[in-house]
Amino acid sequence: MARLTRRKLTPTDIVMWTIGAILIALILWGSIATLARGAYSLDHWIDFTIFGLAQGSIYALIAMGYTMVYGVLRMINFAHSEVFMSGPYTAYYVAAYFYRSGLLEAHPVLSMTMVFLVSMAVSTLIAYLLEMIAYRPLRSAPRLVPLITAIGASFFLQYVFRGLYGSGFQAYPVIRALEGPMYIGPVRILKFQLLVIFAAALLMIALYQFTQRTRLGRALRSVSEDKEAAALMGVDVDRMISMTFMIGGAAAGAAGVLYAIMFKQVHFFMGFIPGLKAFTAAVLGGIGNIPGAMLGGIFLGLVESIGPSLFLDGLGITAPYQLKDAIAFTMLVLVLIFRPTGILGERLAVKKA
Amino acid sequence: MTRRFALVVALVVLAGFTLAGFAQAAPPKDPIGVVTIKKGQPIHIAYWMVVAGPDASLGTDTKRGVEIAIQDKGGKLLGHPIKLSGQDEGCNAEGGQAAATKIASDPTVVAAIGSNCSSAARPGAPILWKAGIPTVSPSNTAPYLTDPKRGPEYDGYLRTAHNDKVQGAVAAQFAIKKLGVKTAATIHDGSVYAEQLQAVFAEEFKKLGGTITSQEAVAPTDTDMRPVLTKIATQKPQFIYYPIFIAAAGHITRQVKEVAGLEKTYLMSADGSFSPDFYKAAGEAAVGMFHSSPDFSAFAAGYKGFLEKHQKKYGEKPIAPFHAHGYDAALMVFHAIEKAAVKEGDTLYIPRKALRDALYATQGLKGLTGTLTCDSYGDCADPRIAVYQQTPENIKKLVNPESPFWKPY
User: Fold this and answer.
1) How far is CA B283 from the centre of its chain?
2) ipTM for the predicted complex
3) A118 pLDDT more than 90
4) Is A316 on the interface with B (CB under 8 A)?
5) Are residues B58 and B128 in the same domain?
6) Are residues B171 and B145 in the same domain?
7) Is B217's CB within 8 Å of A321's CB?
């Protein structure tokens, strides 16, 4: 593709750009009107930002799984939301056991570490089996086939877990040590939100370093660049693909426990919406790109939290939080209009695209 | 052969045919259709309730009420066994549409009981009525469904549940008269039930001299309620009314105390989340909050016997507020079938329009929830709504509180 020559403006471009410009104008107008009204104090905006960061870092962790699998296989693993659900739902029983036996009160750090490990192990296992059973046999099939399989696998997993654990809610035990607010300077933050943001950031940094610095990570990246060449260089492609799924699964399992700490409810359908949002986050950040998924997740979380108040309040729209999802997806449309590859999306080589 | 003779012959033949016709017992005529039930065949009643997913306790509860009503009848009506089949309505419009379509496609179905959620009834009830199947809902409370402006497609719709015009008003009176609050915010989830209930509440609250600070909305699948609660907190209401379903109500209840400025706000929800499943979802955070619900202490004397049968049959106490309404809905249907059905020899004919009219003509029927009398739009309840408060004991034991905290009557 001639990167430097200017593309000719097609009518589609003009229409899209106009839509984009109108949306941006509306957003700006709404924001200015809201700020001018001054219904929210600085404290409120800080609160919104913290909620958004906490929610966004969970999206980012889940998005990791989508983006890594896409990077390697060029497929959307729609069953990833069930990988996300399976871990914390299983670990719930461990957590509930610790709670009953009093271990959770006595040694919160130790028992929560166990809960995390169980959740990550289960999610990793499910992701591994998913790849082995559902996707590997279809690797050379047309691209639509694994996509449909993914949706089928997603339903299958949902209802397997419903059969195993029932269709009701389970409430995660409350960890006393994580309840209540704390103050960093003048900023009020809930303890578990701090934990969620920190844990997610730590995991993401670790994951990024792993792919950039280690031999295994280099092998992973080589498979995502060019499978044939990687195989010729002695990389075990099948193993690397399994590995990708398992790393994504572990991240989702960890995200699941963070989600459970934050929302304290699990049930068999809990993965669907966060999964959809994380997928959006991955596309927003540029699918296939790890830092992009992180950025996309946090961006989405922030927009969902701040957006309704900031953009819609000023426009006089009542009950703006009902439109939270609409805002999130409008953002996706906006980003895709101006940057079709996502915020950090790489320009896909002709071969990949 | 005279002309007169020919006339006589013709008359005799005609009379013969007519008599023969009577002797063969033509089935009763009905503008919509007649269900024919031959000897030994069952009378088929279908339920459409939410029996799976997060709101399953609501549907399971009403279904058990229907089952106990059938048991009380000895499983038989007019000498025919009663057959009960069911569909899950999912507590949403799509589910209601699917369930109603499935029931409507079965010509043996005489009457239906359902739905649980008003959102499901809105598209579902017209589909059933198009197939000539009247439906009695045990738990739909949205005012729209029995509104004079609802349109003829709802002509086959009735309910034994109270109309939320009553429930929303009780909540507002409670807030102002008992708690003495002046400002309130509401949250709904876009469902017909919650949207209308909070609207009735807001109207009554303003009429009584209170101020509504904001009317917010969330999606039923939302989990992070902190932003919307922060928005509500900017105006510091003393009271938050969120008559929504279990999942979202659980999240709000848990998160409201984490939001600066709402630590001391009164919380109130309605019968849609008055269930042990909600106590599981909300945990200890639910202690002290209020729920409006049908007043069980005002139920008829037969209610005690019902509870014993329930305990014996299912090994637990009722799990949601509408079991008695389910029982009464079944009672109304049986009663109307007995009135409308025509028996010819061993065959039972149930004319559909006549059955619908018999249901609407229900008057002074002694049910568990009170005396049922239907008005011309299908509101049959004898509504007694009370306010309950959650205590640490009942949250811990995961049961509904026993006695009301406040009654308007």
Assistant:
1) 27
2) 0.79
3) yes
4) no
5) yes
6) no
7) yes
Residue B15 has a pLDDT of: 62
Inter-chain residue contact B227 with A51, CB threshold 8 Å: yes
Range of the domain at B70: 35-161+322-378
* Pair (B119, B253) in one structural domain: no
Beta-strand ranges (E) seen in B281-369 are: 290-294, 342-344, 347-351, 365-366
- B123 with B206, same domain: the answer is no
Find which of A43, A47, A165 to mutate to test the B interface (most B CBs within 10 Å of its CB). Answer: A47
* Chain A residue with Cα closest to B222: A273
- Evaluate if residue B247 carries a pLDDT over 90: no
For residue B234, give the nearest of A39, A171, A318 by CB distance: A39
- Domain limits of chain A? 11-352
Inter-chain residue contact B217 with A319, CB threshold 8 Å = yes
Gap from B227 CA to chain A (nearest CA, Å)? 6
Residues A176-217: pLDDT tens digits? 888 878 888 888 888 888 999 999 999 999 999 998 999 999
Q: How many domains, chain B? A: 2
Once rounded to an integer, what is the mean pLDDT over residues B355-381?
Answer: 92
Q: What is the pLDDT of residues A291-336, one digit of tens each?
A: 899 999 999 999 999 988 888 888 888 788 888 888 888 888 888 8
What is the least distance, in Å, from the CA of B281 to any CA of chain A? 5
Query: Which string of DSSP letters, residue by residue, matches A182-230?
Result: EEETTEEEEHHHHHHHHHHHHHHHHHHHHHHHSHHHHHHHHHHH-HHHH
List the single residue in B with minimal CA-CA distance to A270.
B221
Each residue's pLDDT tens digit, B41-93: 999 999 999 998 777 888 999 999 999 999 999 999 999 999 999 999 999 99
Residue B12 lies in a domain: no
Look up residue A174 and give its two tokens: 């409350």
| pLDDT attached to residue A170 | 83
Closest residue in A to B257 (Cα–Cα): A180
- B-interface mutation test, from A35, A41, A44, most B Cβ less than 10 A away: A44
| Residues A244-294: tens digit of each pLDDT | 999 999 999 999 999 999 888 888 888 999 999 999 999 999 888 888 999
Q: How many CB pairs under 8 A join A and B?
A: 107
The residue in chain A having the minimum alpha-carbon distance to the alpha carbon of residue B226 is A51
Residue B343 amino acid letter: K
CATH class name, domain A11-352: mainly alpha
Query: Do B391 and B256 belong to one domain?
Result: yes
pLDDT value at position A92? 93
Band (B25; pLDDT cuts 50, 70, 90):
low
Distances (CA, A) of A187 to A44, A184, A299, A301, B358: 11, 5, 21, 19, 66
User: Are B252 and B392 in the same domain?
Assistant: yes
Instruction: Find the mean pLDDT for residues B96-115.
Output: 95
CB–CB of A51 and B224 under 8 A? Answer: yes
d(CA B352, CA B33): 6
Say if residue B286 is in the same domain as residue B170. Answer: yes
Contact B57 A55 (CB under 8 A): no
**Residues A65, A130: Cα–Cα separation, whole Å:** 13
Q: Which two tokens stand for residue A328?
A: 């999130």
Q: Is the pLDDT of residue B170 over 70?
A: yes
Q: What percent of chain B has pLDDT over 90?
A: 62
Predicted pLDDT at B11: 65
Residue in A167, A318, A324 closest to B56 by CB: A167
Contact B280 A171 (CB under 8 A): yes
CA distance B223 to B245: 13
Question: Cα(B70)–Cα(B277) distance, rounded to whole angstroms?
Answer: 26
Within the 46-65 window of chain A, which residues sit less than 8 Å (CB to CB) from chain B? 47-48, 51-52, 55
Task: Check if A163 contacts B (Cβ < 8 Å).
Answer: no
Whether the CB of A168 is below 8 Å from some CB of chain B: the reply is yes
Tell whether B206 is covered by a domain. yes
Instruction: Using only the alpha carbons of chain B, give its radius of gyration.
Output: 25
Q: Are residues B212 and B149 in the same domain?
A: no
The CATH code of the domain that includes B218 is: 3.40.50.2300
Closest by Cα among B113, B161, B141 to B334: B113
